[in-house]
Description:
By secondary structure, the chain is of the alpha+beta class. It has helices spanning 2-31, 82-85, 88-92, 282-325; strands spanning 39-51, 70-80, 95-106, 122-133, 139-140, 146-147, 171-175, 180-192, 195-208, 214-217, 228-244, 249-262, 269-280. It folds into two domains: 1-31 and 296-327; 32-280, no CATH class. 24% of the residues lie in helices and 38% in strands. Strands 1, 2, 3, 4, 5, 6, 7, 8, 9, 10, 11, 12 and 13 form a 13-stranded antiparallel beta sheet that branches. It is elongated and about 110 Å long. The two termini are 52 Å apart. Residues 111-118 have low confidence and may be disordered.
Amino acid sequence: xxxxxxxxxxxxxxxxxxxxxxxxxxxxxxxxxxxxxxxxxxxxxxxxxxxxxxxxxxxxxxxxxxxxxxxxxxxxxxxxxxxxxxxxxxxxxxxxxxxxxxxxxxxxxxxxxxxxxxxxxxxxxxxxxxxxxxxxxxxxxxxxxxxxxxxxxxxxxxxxxxxxxxxxxxxxxxxxxxxxxxxxxxxxxxxxxxxxxxxxxxxxxxxxxxxxxxxxxxxxxxxxxxxxxxxxxxxxxxxxxxxxxxxxxxxxxxxxxxxxxxxxxxxxxxxxxxxxxxxxxxxxxxxxxxxxxxxxxxxxxxxxxxxxxxxxxxxxxxxxxxxxxxxxxxxxxxxxxxxxxxxxxx
Length: 346
């Protein structure tokens, strides 16, 4: 009976040892996928440093700007398109499809980042539709993906959800304004909302905003005369993102952006169109942090803790099973130990 128990323990130990790498290299990665039915409402707070008053843009008025340094609030709603993601084209590439709407408003004195109906003057409003890998978050030109309703050539990483198991390296992150991916450099580890995060900084040098060329009178951009001149908006931005590395979820973010009008030389700023600073609402960051930490803990348990437990348990079970199973040398009985008298001498 003992030998049967020993064989069972040896078999159990072998099974546990085999399961350890399976959990680490197969089970954990297989559950690390972005859900298709995602729905989030995020908020931000900031300041509109300088904004052009478009009603004065085409006039020779000296002061073309709204009052400076106005408090602002931002809001974004993101919703997964489950039906689109379940189509064969998306399933073959393991894609999720998200529709997102974002806006930036001047805040009224009694407004907060979450009381959108109390917000003041609209600054910007944009829509995007992203199709992206559920594990690596790489954007795909699929499933009606667009920016403001226009088809674009997507590339790089989806800006709202980074890959699972983020590494300490640069990532090319997509930017809707310039319709291109720009590297976000790893800038160290920092604690954010009680979690260890990876900090990344994306610097976008002044870049032409696609499809934005327009002709205006020279005096509208501060040049002498009224001869028409071609101008284009140029966009500059610094985006700092704090990412929880296991889940790839964004914990916190801040942005400093500047859009100016430049003339035919493409180097001289003639007029500032919009300058603002925006960061995630601290209340929103604290609200979302427990959920992000819980998901990270679950993945870390499946990928790191559980495989070690299974490996150790498997080794212990195997050793105990072997000790129980191995045959032992039989001890001599009393009859075997009786002394046989010597034969009588002849």
